């Protein structure tokens, strides 16, 4: 009897080990999504891009899909076939529709059952004609807070909150289960007007994943300095989507392969010199029109640094600091009165254990691949972060 008990215990232990091994072997790999833009259509060699699971071509305008035009062409800067040829055979190629400032076409599409059906059918036609694996909907601010929120206040767009999930549902029906459907969604909680506990479950029923734009978390509407890709602000965004009903495995954390800077008003520069994080900036947006007052700027790693900030940016690269509280790399140039905020490769790697693993996310994405050329230092950092999580999972 003792032998049987010992044998039973050993057998049970072996079964547990087998189950754990099977679970690990069937664990879905993390998504590693890269937007490829017409502004920077640069692709690294296949060895460096091997970790990329999805490429999203950006953008087609939303208004294109509101017209019933037979035998139409689909305007995109690079064909799906050409895109596939530049990556590993397993790559999924998607087409992004919309983008920052593209709200009118989506408003037309979402208005009625008939317009939603027309839009969805045209999306399905586009996928069939181009051979793309899916579509990414970049209606970034349904319900309001878009670029034109002063001209068209949020009160005019309350109806979009209920219409947005209906449009996604119509698209899911039109493209079927064999094609991917995703959406780029706000990273600031103040902009998540259409993502409520009431609407989010139906949104998630339609999409394969959400690309949470955890960047531009400081923009011209802010009046204090903060990290535009900060860890704490990113966690707040992820937590809010999960709280409202999004499964964590359907969320992707966003990385910014570009730099942002903000010019501090003269009257606040002294305060920023002593306390750079969280200091007042002064107005950066016209309170009447919502227009840019010329206090903000940005550029990708592939761009030439603007001449008027070139010297200041060199100081930011050489003398910046990492804020352990907010979780972000920054530099305040007291001489020029410029606040710099961007991710270094080290900062990117750190987000994998602190956000992706902690929140059990399904993947990451970046805007954008070519923006990181020619050295692709930040893509390499994403690869290192993915490898780190792979090691940790194997050791479970």
Automatic annotation (TrEMBL):
It comes from the Eukaryota. GO terms for biological process: carbohydrate metabolic process; chitin catabolic process. One of its GO terms (molecular function) is chitin binding. The keyword Flavoprotein does not apply. InterPro entries: Chitinase_II/V-like_cat (IPR011583), GH (IPR017853), Glyco_hydro18_cat (IPR001223), Glycosyl_Hydrlase_18 (IPR050314). This is chitinase. Residues 30-389 form the GH18 domain. It comes from Neoarthrinium moseri. SMART domains: Glyco_18 (SM00636). Keywords: Signal. GO terms for cellular component: extracellular region. Coiled coil: none annotated. Residues 1-23 form the signal peptide.
């Amino acid at each position: 009897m003792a032998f049987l008990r010992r044998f039973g215990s050993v057998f049970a232990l072996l079964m547990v080990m087998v189950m754990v091994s099977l679970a690990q072997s069937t664990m879905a790999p993390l998504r590693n999504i890269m937007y490829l833009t017409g502004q920077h259509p640069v692709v690294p060699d296949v060895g460096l891009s091997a970790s990329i699971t999805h490429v999203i071509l950006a953008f087609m305008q939303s208004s294109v899909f509101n017209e019933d035009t037979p035998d139409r062409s689909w305007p995109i800067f690079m064909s799906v076939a050409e895109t596939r040829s530049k990556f590993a055979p397993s790559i999924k190629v998607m087409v992004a529709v919309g983008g920052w400032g593209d709200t009118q076409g989506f408003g037309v599409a979402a208005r009625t059952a008939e317009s939603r059906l027309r839009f969805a059918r045209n999306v399905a036609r586009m996928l069939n004609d181009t051979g793309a694996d899916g579509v990414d909907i970049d209606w970034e601010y349904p319900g309001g807070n878009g670029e034109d929120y002063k001209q068209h206040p949020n009160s005019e767009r309350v109806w979009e909150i209920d219409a947005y999930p209906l449009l996604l549902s119509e698209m899911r029906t039109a493209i079927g289960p064999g094609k991917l459907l995703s959406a780029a969604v706000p990273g600031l909680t103040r902009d998540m007007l259409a993502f409520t506990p009431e609407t989010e479950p139906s949104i998630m029923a339609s999409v394969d994943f959400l690309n949470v734009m955890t960047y531009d978390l400081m923009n011209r509407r802010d009046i204090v300095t903060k990290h535009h890709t900060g860890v704490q602000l990113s966690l707040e965004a992820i937590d809010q989507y999960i709280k409202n009903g999004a499964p964590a495995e359907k969320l992707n954390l966003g990385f910014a392969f570009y730099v942002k800077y903000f010019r501090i008003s003269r009257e606040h520069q002294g305060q920023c010199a002593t306390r750079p994080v969280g200091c007042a900036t002064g107005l950066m947006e016209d309170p009447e029109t919502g227009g840019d007052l010329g206090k903000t700027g940005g550029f990708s790693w592939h761009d030439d640094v603007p001449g008027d900030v070139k010297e200041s940016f060199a100081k930011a690269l050489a003398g910046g600091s990492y804020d352990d509280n907010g979780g972000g790399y920054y530099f305040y140039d007291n001489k020029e009165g410029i606040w710099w905020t961007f991710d270094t490769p080290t900062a990117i790697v750190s987000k994998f254990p602190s956000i992706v693993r902690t929140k059990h996310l399904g993947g990451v994405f970046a805007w954008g691949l070519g923006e990181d050329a020619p050295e692709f230092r930040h893509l390499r950092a994403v690869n290192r972060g993915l490898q780190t999580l792979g090691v940790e999972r194997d050791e479970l």
